[in-house]
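lol so apparently i was supposed to do this last week
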Amino acid sequence: MKKISILVPCYNEEEVLPLYLEAIKPLMADRRYEWELLLIDDGSRDSTLSIMEQAHQHNEQIQYIELSRNFGKENALLAGLDYVTGDAVIIMDVDLQHPVNVIPEMIKKWENGYDDIYAKRMSRGQESWLRKLLSKCYYSLLQVSSETNVYPNVGDFRLLDRQCIQALRTLRESDRYTKGMYAYIGFRKTSIDFAQENRAAGSSKWSYYKLFGLALNGILSSSIRPLQIATKTGVLVSLIAFMYLLWVFFKSLLYGDPVRGFPTLIIVILFLGGLQLLSIGILGEYIGRIFHESKRRPSYFIRTHNGKKI
Ligand code: UDP
Ligand code: MG
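anyway here it is w/ uridine-5'-diphosphate bound
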């Protein structure tokens, strides 16, 4: 019998975790498969962990891992991928924004030979218009700047075959941008549409500030195109400056035109200064990433696995 793992990262989710456990129960009663629910406690400070503990005691299909602190969703997911034992894994959020009723369809596609079945949001639930607009702009920017194809409106909600799990386990960079990784590993992909629900309870853990960081990371961690853009802009600006120089030179030589234009000069200096700072900034972002990466620190530490220290 094939085994399917469900991987769910949780951070301060005491309000919604019991609801989730109820919602996923019918699915795990399907006798055609063996099931495993792996909950990751990403350093929660509320009673999330004790809810997991109780769930594990009542049902041995439910496993849980307690991380030593909050490492962020991306790292929590890696921890989970390292420990799932199924022939496939379904990754989903705990807040019921990812509807359980899409999963049987995913499994069907998996049985038909697909390796990575990702769910695509058709509606984004009750998110603010600003958030929707920003997300749209961001994905267009990402399309231009990144080397692998990251799909818009596709998140972590997906089913991955064992081969994909193994591939993802080998990608151990500390700057984790999982969306880019799914694109990077390849394999046979297909999508399923779903309508995103609202968060069932609790609140989203993403502030605009954190989202901005994530967005920047998305671009910088999967591509060196910003560096190339900086170089090309540099070349273009120098060319324009050189032609302008020739023009001014011959104009004053031929017509004896006195060189005027203090404002133009200031504008050009400020423009170039800005460009240089931006380029140095981009360089700095990459150097910072190299710095973090070169330390080769593990992405997470586990305190307990099913209540036992490891
Ligand atoms: N999450 C996590 N660690 C974090 C932040 C979030 O494991 O540091 C989990 C969270 O418990 C949830 C999922 O990641 O299961 C998505 O989080 P959230 O719903 O806050 O994000 P959104 O849906 O707003 O993008
Ligand atoms: Mg959510």
